[in-house]
Design goal:
With 224 residues, the protein is α+β, with helices and mostly antiparallel strands. The chain has a single domain, classed as Hypothetical Protein Pfu-838710-001 (Beta Barrel), CATH 2.40.320. The protein contains 6 helices and 8 strands; from the N terminus they run βαβααβββαβββαα. The protein has an 8-stranded antiparallel β-barrel with strand order 1-5-4-3-2-6-7-8, surrounded by 5 helices. A hairpin with a 2-residue loop joins strand 6 and strand 7. Helix 2 runs antiparallel to helix 3. It is globular, with a radius of gyration of 17 Å.
Length: 224
């Protein structure tokens, strides 16, 4: 069964705002859980040869994810391909848009995420050998939480600074808009503003053009 990721972001600014958000979530939800911190490397790719990508990658993904990988590689038109190292777990991630936002930063996307039996460098090489090239490399420190049946992450991103992501996974794409409304209502209670898609795309484009200056550093920028 396909999984659809409904995700809305809020730019927090500094550490104090991130800490205040955690305090508010804990006070607002008696079932609030802190799932702990971890560090991530995320590598984004550009390219279009998903047929060759499928051929090179399929034997390395989890058995139950192979059919979803095949469908995405054959059918997706707007998609984002990335690799990740999350505390030693190496992942292949493909996201395809199911609404009128982008596959890289959209609010509603079909998602495949599979652990692979490769190092990050080996996985990257297979993707590069499939005709893709690096779009950008990202690094972040992430804290994860459960809040009102949502996955919430607070990231300290190279370039962006502190960013909150509210995510809910659904199996029925017809429920995407109602789920977005639920997330936005929860964010309003917490006093958060949604990061507009057009500003997020400008930030994303700027980072992609300058990622070598930020990857693995504490430096941030501000794009209105």
């Amino acid at each position: 069964m396909a999984a659809y990721e409904i995700e809305i972001k809020s730019l927090l600014g500094g550490k104090n705002n991130a800490d205040n958000l955690i305090t508010k979530m804990k006070a607002d939800d008696p079932n609030f859980q802190s799932l702990g911190p971890h560090k991530q490397q995320n590598h984004y790719f550009s390219g279009s040869n998903t047929v060759l990508l499928y051929s090179n990658i399929v034997k390395h993904v989890e058995k139950e994810k192979k059919e979803n990988l095949k469908n995405l590689c054959e059918q997706a038109k707007d998609y984002s391909i990335r690799t990740a190292n999350r505390d030693g777990r190496v992942l292949l991630i493909i996201k395809a848009s199911i609404d009128d936002t982008t596959s890289s930063n959209g609010t509603a996307r079909i998602e495949l995420e599979s652990e692979v039996d490769l190092s990050l460098e080996e996985l990257d090489k297979l993707i590069l050998d499939s005709g893709f090239h690096y779009q950008a490399k990202w690094s972040r420190e992430r804290q994860e939480f459960k809040y009102k049946d949502m996955n919430v992450s607070i990231d300290k991103n190279a370039g962006y600074g502190y960013l909150a992501e509210f995510e809910k996974i659904i199996s029925d794409p017809d429920k995407a808009e109602n789920t977005k409304t639920f997330i936005r209502d929860c964010m309003n209670v917490l006093g958060l503003q949604e990061l507009p898609q057009d500003r997020l795309e400008r930030m994303f484009a700027y980072y992609n053009q300058n990622w070598q200056d930020y990857y693995g550093t504490e430096k941030t920028f501000n794009i209105d």
